[in-house]
Amino acid sequence: MAQTKIWKIDNHLARCVRYVMNPEKTQDGKLVSGVNLFIPPKDWQSPTNQMISTKLRFDKQGGRLAYHLEQGFKPGEVTPETAHQIGVELAKELFGDKYEVVVATHVDKEHIHNHILLNSVSFVDGRKFHQPNAMYYDRIRKASDRLCEKYGLSVIKEAKKSRYEDYPAQNHKEPQSSPTVHSVMYGDIDRAVEAAKDLEDFYRILTRMGYRIRREGKYPAISPEGHGFFRLYKFKEGYTEEDIRRRIAEKKVYREPKKVYGAWRNQEERRAYQKRYTGYYARRYDRRGLNYTYLHYRYMLISIRRQTYPYYPTVEQRKAVAKLEKYSREARLLVRNKIQTKEELCRYQSDLGERIHALHKERWYLKQDLQKCSDESERQVIQEKISEISRRLKPLYRERSLCRDIAERCSSVTAAVGREKEYAMRGMAHERGEGSWTTRQRQ
User: Fold this and answer.
1) What is the pLDDT of residues 431-441, one digit of tens each?
2) CA-based angle 400:402:404, to the nearest 5?
3) 230-231 and 221-223: which strand pairing?
4) Every domain range in the chain assigned CATH 3.30.930.30
5) By CB atoms within 10 Å of each CB, which of 45, 78, 188, 203 scores lowest?
6) Residue 102 to residue 70: CA distance in whole angstroms
7) Which residues pair with 231 in a beta bridge?
């Protein structure tokens, strides 16, 4: 069974070659081979210079320097020689026609693994290697599995589920544990769809909300304040451009806006005024005064919608509200923990760091136990403990961030208070006719 992964090398090519060819890891250099490269024994500088020469010949020294492919085997399933032979055959099959490759087998750990270092520039035509995701699944992993089967090794039938969620799953799932830029955009899109008459009106409303719109390219994109552009086709179901157009078309002709100035507070109030108007004021239409006229027109204007889109604060208002909420959280933190001085804040910060470190340490040991545990029920208990510690860490992270912000602004606030005191002293001295503070200092 072999696991494979590949990543890019953007700097320190020589250091990477030296690590791959380390004699202490490769049985004194016996498990090192070159594909389209001449590698003298224990000489990592020679393959490095050959790769650099290829880059200089085609004037492609910058950018991505190399790719590093690792192929790991199940402990006890393969010998070092067989693993190295598999690595060499894999490198020749994938890259042997155009690229220079160093293949090294490391035996310093429990599991034997191959390191395949690929020069990014082809020695044939100077083209750089491009590795899309499809190549990994269609070529690299399949070729590795085929070679494992050839030498009688087991093959992974189903890939292990990653601990980490992909980008769309992190940002588009429901419900979100805390507000994110995607959840805010989805709420804004809902408001705009609610008020829009067509797609053009939808984009116009988003512009009034403070968004930038880009529709000239192949994929429409929107940009909230302080962020780059997000393509609509990547949004979750119901929020792509086609879904938005469909939602607007499927809306009812009559839809009560969320907020309409001059309308009734509720239906009960409307029915009460309607009864009073039809039962009393309508019979005295010719004798009513200003109050009756106002009630009449208030009843008549119920069908007039003065606001074509929901009220939405400006960008400046949203920034001010966010800053105010942050200052409020900081003030509550100081009051709740009775922090009066900068020294007390530093002590609280230190105590907070120790609590976070202790929880990190506890969670790390639980993760180690989780890897060793084979019983499913015990694994579930350990996983719940890890999740609980992660939930306990989140408010501590927020408090640490608030403490850092308070500490950064503490000196500037203290200086501002000092200036205000100085100005107040000058004003009091001026009122008493004692002259300015600077004048008294000179005297």
Assistant:
1) 666 554 444 44
2) 70
3) antiparallel
4) 2-150
5) 45
6) 12
7) 221
Q: Give the integer Cα–Cα distance in Å for 75 and 439.
A: 85
Which residues face 114 on adjacent strands?
A: 71, 105
C-alpha dihedral, 294 to 299 to 304 to 308, nearest 10°: 90
Burial readout 70-99 (b: 16 or more C-beta within 10 A, e: otherwise): bbbbeeebbebebbbbbbbbbbeebbeeeb
* Mean pLDDT score of the chain: 79
> Which has the higher per-residue pLDDT, 272 or 315?
272
> 2-150 in CATH: which number?
3.30.930.30
Q: How far is the C-alpha of 393 from the C-alpha of 395, rounded, in Å?
A: 6
What b/e string do you get for 36-55 counting C-beta neighbours within 10 Å, with b at 16 or more? Answer: bbebeeeebeebbebbbebb
**Alpha-carbon gap, residue 24 to 108, rounded angstroms:** 8
Cα radius of gyration rounded to whole Å, the chain: 35
Amino acid at 71: Q
Q: Is the four-CA dihedral 357, 363, 369, 370 of positive or negative sign?
A: negative
Give 6-31 pLDDT, tens digit per residue. Answer: 888 888 899 999 999 999 999 888 99
Separation CA 211–CA 188 (nearest Å):
10
Please tell me the predicted confidence (pLDDT) of residue 295.
53
Exposure string of 314-343, with b = 16+ CB inside 10 Å and e = fewer, is: eeeebeeeeeeeeeeebeebbeeeebeeee
pLDDT for 212-248, tens place per residue? 999 888 889 999 877 889 998 888 888 889 999 999 9
pLDDT in tens, 135-181: 666 788 888 888 988 888 887 766 555 555 555 555 555 555 556 77
Q: What is the pLDDT of residues 325-364, one digit of tens each?
A: 888 888 888 888 888 888 888 899 999 999 999 999 999 9
Of the chain, the percentage scoring pLDDT greater than 90 comes to 28
Parallel, antiparallel or unpaired: strands 32-35 and 101-106: antiparallel
- As a whole number of angstroms, the distance between CA 268 and CA 51 comes to 82
Residue 424 CA to chain centroid, in angstroms? 48
